[in-house]
Amino acid sequence: MPIPRRAAFTLPLAALPAAAQPAWPPRPLRLIVPYAPGGVTDILARAVAAGLGSQLGTQVVVENRPGANTIIGTGAVAQAAPDGLTLLMASGASTVLNPLLYRQLPYDAARDLAVLGIVVETPLVMVVPPSLPVRSVAEFIAYAKARPDAVNYASVGLGNPIQLAAELFAMGAGISMTNVVYPGSAPSLLALAAGDVQVMFDVIGTSLPQIRDGRLRALAVTTRARLPVLPDVPTIAESGLPGYQAATWFGLALPRATPEPVQARLRTALAAVQQDAEFAQRFSDLGLAIQPPREPAAIEAYLAEERERWGGVIRARGISLGSAP
What is the set of domains in the chain, with CATH numbers? Predict the structure, then answer.
């Protein structure tokens, strides 16, 4: 029986005969990276862009839009046309933490953005100076409890995942630690190695060289499972704080109003990039944890878990960054 003329116009793009489908994408895509060029995030974004371009048969142009704690670049994508041609190198900071930390943003991350995939998690590692007389999480907790208000931890700013991981640990362990803010990872690690502060929850990629040469001691990693780059270092969860988990993440997002057939095509292309062996090896060697492709419902559950975890820490500790810059 022929399809009524009116109903034919309601069919999604994927249901049309191949010959009737308009070519997509009609032009190169933009991948907006809300970070400055040159860092690991930028390197990751360019690798993702190259892989997507290969899968889609077009160019994906990387555009760095740093500033305002990722708000500038994230807002540009949230307000872009929902045609699938403007993508965001999203992160936990841009989509989960900022909405919890700022009183008002120029976009609503949950309403305006859809995360297509979590590409990598960036594990953190709990590191102490070799001069500190502790060799395990349990010993560190005992050390801190014996010295109330005398233990300091290094961070790189309020609301940063490094600070939040330390506060989550302190809450779970029932200890008090004071945040000492440094202008970046390099000075914070120098202060830690010198014993000016007692602990740091650092991105594993920056701490790994100093762990390997003995300038820092790794007590535990913050992920659910041990890491291949530090196989002998236990997780915090197995070290006495069951359920503890903390990691930053990076993925791909786009305007939520983008038609589902376009989102599906992009998800398929991104999944192929994530499952590429060369891609996975390259970033595993940098200390990143490659994530498997997830269905949309699983991604939403992942984000909900992140919001619950960090929202609890932020509210309990009264952390706020005020109005958006």
Answer: 12-122+247-317 (3.40.190.150), 123-239 (3.40.190.10)
